[in-house]
Amino acid sequence: MILESINLKNNMEATEKDILRGGQFLVKETKCEDIFTPEDFSEEQQMMKESVKEFNDREIIPNKPRFEAKDFALTEEVMRKAGDMGFLSVAVPEAYGGMGMGFVSTVLTCDYISSGTGSFSTAFGAHTGIGTMPITLYGTEEQKQKYVPKLASGEWFGAYCLTEPGAGSDANSGKTTAELSTDGKTYKINGQKMWISNAGFCNLMIVFARIEEDKNITGFIVEYDKNNPNGITLGEEEHKLGIRASSTRQVFFNDTEVPVENMLAGRGEGFKIAMNALNVGRIKLAAACLDSQRRITTTAVQYANERKQFKTPIADFGAIKIKLAEMTTNTYVGESATYRASKNIEDRIALRVEAGNSHQEAELKGVEEYAIECSILKVAVSEDVQNCADEGIQIFGGMGFSEETPMEAAWRDARIARIYEGTNEINRMLSVGMLVKKAMKGHVDLLGPAMKVQEELMGIPSFDTPDYSELFSEEKEMIAKLKKTFLMVAGAAVQKFGPDLEQHQQLLVAAADILIEIYMAESAILRTEKNAKRFGEDAQSAQIAMSKLYLYHAVETIEKKGKESIISFAEGDEQRMMLMGLKRFTKYQNYPDIVDLRNEIAEKIKEENKYCF
To answer: Which helix H or strand E contains 206, and what residues bound it?
Structure first.
């Protein structure tokens, strides 16, 4: 056994060198050939994409008024149809009735099925993610054989009962209890859960409760039969700003009996289950926002091309071109980053399987490895989809505020994305906190690069005129400088505050914004560079413009957040030196003409009359 463990470790170390670990994008250069892009979809993935889009166009889009009218029965009906099509089983191993497809295909399905309405998107995401995944990843073989095939087929639906009235972001502070019976055969669960998606039509709940005075909560698989409720009662459907036909109820447990064999993982393992489930949920949430942005942008440009004011289509007005260009750019960047991270996770899972890990362990560790990227994507894309819908309303003008047009529903549905799967504030702090912890464990070398940045600040900057003749040569150099900005700020902050850094939330939030912009901007540039090499620069002209436009905004954000961070904790000579470094690291040699960039992007989608990338 010891020898097997050593061999497994050696196999992992040999192959890990070829795949960047989570967070290492910050300190190691990524070549464009090493990332995955939507243009790399396999034939099988293209077929899946078209099948999901067709389902969305047939079953969801035409019924949007019914979803907005809180037709909860319709949500359940369409979920069953999704089960019949196999869409609920994409990520489920074949041994338990699933398709056993890779992580990219899982994300792709979530992407293209989620844009018809946030109501169905939420039901789908809750069931396939946090309703099913805890069992496939933490369940015993008996639990998986008993429950997963029913969930994969849509015969049963799942819900996830974690949040309580007094325990939101502090998930481990829940008061729900689980008490072992005197004969040791069952647990009795008592407590209250709230904001439970799919509660109105679920057959199974993943419930978290505390046993005695345990430090951490424990997970349980709880069956629910309306005809034999077993002490479970449901509150009324919540009336929400958006996702109106997503069933959202409180769930009350009164001496609910659960067999001891339905404990999920071990006693006190519930918090770990909850956190790892959220990692997967975060990247899938980002994916679930992408096609919404595509559809919003398409609807907006089609309206702008048709709507005339002063005898001119409003799409020809510069003020509208700004909006169309920014909406399109953010969508493209979100796609680039989401599929980059998805393939990294898929490759890490495959690496672990090859090294001898079980499917469960491989997927858990594969996703956990990129928890930083999952948080980054959750924040960035959820905020982009909200901004996209907001600008969509603005382009429609007064009509955008009316329920007769699709924009106001899109705006309402988008709003929840910044709250669930951990609020964006929590995810910002998590992204930096997890990065620092990985550095402490030696998984990401932040100290060495940070010290090099400090040495560079003390030296004399080069005044040589660089050669920027190749595509993105200046942009890639700028990305490298932005990474130095993060290392300068984060390195100094860690030195000053040490383990107390987590108490300085405003500093963490600012540092997170720097981290987010670096990852998103780099992802777009790498995608475009890869495609320019294989399709030609002329064919990627608008994509080049989008990559440059996003980077320009990223530099502006990083300069602002860097300054805010530095003056919050540094003083005197240290502050002056760091501010000079910030100026050096955020300075272009040749500033891009963002008006020209926006015009090129806007003209492209005007001509195509849709989001066309």
So the answer is: strand 204-211
